[in-house]
Amino acid sequence: MIDDLKLRNRSPRTIQSYIAQVAYFARHFGKSPELLGPEEIRQYQVYLVNERRVSWGTFNQAVCALRFFYRHTLGRADTVAHIPFPRQAKKLPVVLSPLEVQRLLAAVRDYQLRVLLMTTYAAGLRLSEVIHLQVADIDSQRMVIRVRQGKGQKDRYVTLATTLLTELRRYWQQERPSTWLFPSKSKLQPISANRVQRACQLAGRAAGLTKPATVRCLRHSFATHLLEAGTNLRVIQTLLGHSSVRTTQTYTSVSAQTLRTVVSPLDALAGIPSNGR
């Protein structure tokens, strides 16, 4: 299965998660998955929903892993032909205001982490993308940042803000990173994703934010703030690395600037008593 995933150029993270999901499935029944079929898959799905109460994302990942395993590794496409996918609950992204972003960044005590989160917001990066940035990816001549193998195994360039460049130069002079822009303490690997998420959450609490503070929230805020500033939706799509503009259009639903252009019918009414009568 690992070989099949590699031949299809799946990312190391996808390979790891798919293998783990098939292993959980096999462990649940105490048998090789080669000996299991559609009925066991259905029972496992019921178990995930009713007993483990997993999130939609985890459930979907398990289904995708089993589909891949039976279809490509075992060549038994009929086994997974009728595996149901749940209907995904559509939730709007959490977006911070510019002032809330400022408060969040100011509350990060660790300098390296503050610059990392600043980079995340300034360029609208995913967590996996920002922690894997290399020093060589910062192109100050062209004022762009190279994102290597983002989601979908695609490279792209994003804008390098002047304010961010100034901060990155100060950071480099102080920390002297060599390969990884944001290395771990050993300098041999990039910084841990868990450490970054934890720092972001702690900073959100320290800043007194009522919204959940995550790295993804900073990416959502980047896109929404660009949209509110009048940036073309197609440009935002390219910067975010979305394969479809429909994904980017989600931000039109949370843009305060867009909502403010709508006049409520209540404002058109006149003569409404205001004394409680």
Commentary on this structure:
The chain is mostly helical and 277 residues long. The protein is 51% helix and 5% strand. It has 13 helices and three strands; from the N terminus they run αααααααβββαααααα. The chain has helices spanning 2-7, 12-29, 38-50, 56-73, 98-106, 111-123, 127-131, 162-175, 193-206, 215-228, 233-240, 245-248, 256-260, and strands at residues 138-139, 144-150, 154-159. It has a three-stranded antiparallel beta sheet with strand order 1-2-3. A hairpin with a 3-residue loop joins strand 2 and strand 3. The radius of gyration is 23 Å and the shape is globular. The N and C termini lie far apart (72 Å).
Strand order of the largest sheet: 1-2-3
Structural class: mainly alpha
Instruction: Please give the largest β-sheet.
Output: 3 strands, antiparallel
Number of strands: 3
Radius of gyration: 23 Å
Give the termini separation. Answer: 72 Å
Quaternary: single chain
Average pLDDT works out at 86
Order of helices and strands: HHHHHHHEEEHHHHHH
Number of helices: 13
- Categorize the overall geometry: globular
- Unreliable stretches, pLDDT < 50, 5 or more residues? none
**Beta-strand content estimate:** 5-15%
Percentage of residues assigned to helices: 40-55%
